[in-house]
Design brief:
This protein is an all-alpha fold and 186 residues long. The chain has helices at residues 11-15, 26-45, 48-53, 58-69, 73-88, 93-126, 128-137, 143-159, 164-179.
Length: 186
């Protein structure tokens, strides 16, 4: 036996703009909750200095301190969920911007390290040719110290010794890069 279903047309609902009835789907609510949970997790994982500088209200800061102290997995997960629930009821734009700035700073440091490594490797591989190119673009670099470090690093590598001079060369290049960015290494 077939069921019959009666549909009623509500003309009042048809006349109202669709934005008035725009409800957030359950899936979207879940995605938003997961974003807040990830945000809470990032806040808990911050270092002490970064955590102290974070733009948090005192109530949230206290809950995050509690979560940072908890070592038991289940209890920490429960506290993380509690903090995420608090974050859902807040405007987190300033906190997200703070974390984005921290990430951008970390990316810049990584980029500087990669540039210094590339120059170190090129200087050790091609020697005077690359040194002349570096000194042409960065005349403030200490020619004598760089040559000595390159020579010592090559000798250490040939003798199978630990790369102390290569590390010192890297540090010197990194310091040069921090004052003014090194040019791209070919």
């Amino acid at each position: 036996m077939a069921k019959t279903i009666n549909f009623q047309y509500d003309s009042a609902a048809a006349d109202t703009p669709p934005d008035e009835f725009a409800e957030v789907s359950k899936s979207q609510l879940k995605r938003d909750a997961l974003v807040k949970r990830d945000l809470a997790s990032e806040l808990i994982a911050l270092g002490n200095k970064q955590f102290a500088a974070a733009p948090l209200d005192e109530d949230l800061r206290e809950e995050l301190r509690d979560a940072r102290k908890i070592t038991a997995h289940v209890a920490r997960k429960r506290q993380l969920g509690f903090v995420a629930k608090k974050l859902r009821n807040m405007d987190t734009g300033e906190i997200e911007q703070y974390l984005a700035n921290l990430q951008q700073d970390a990316n810049q440091i990584t980029l500087r390290h990669h540039r210094a490594e590339a120059w170190r490797d090129a200087l050790l591989a091609r020697g005077d040719e690359m040194l002349a190119e570096l000194l042409q673009q960065r005349p403030d670099a200490d020619r004598q110290a760089l040559r000595q470090l390159i020579r010592n690093a090559r000798q250490e590598a040939a003798a199978g010794k630990p790369p102390a001079a290569a590390r010192a060369l890297f540090r010197m290049l990194r310091d040069l890069d921090s004052s003014d960015a090194l040019p791209h290494c070919d």
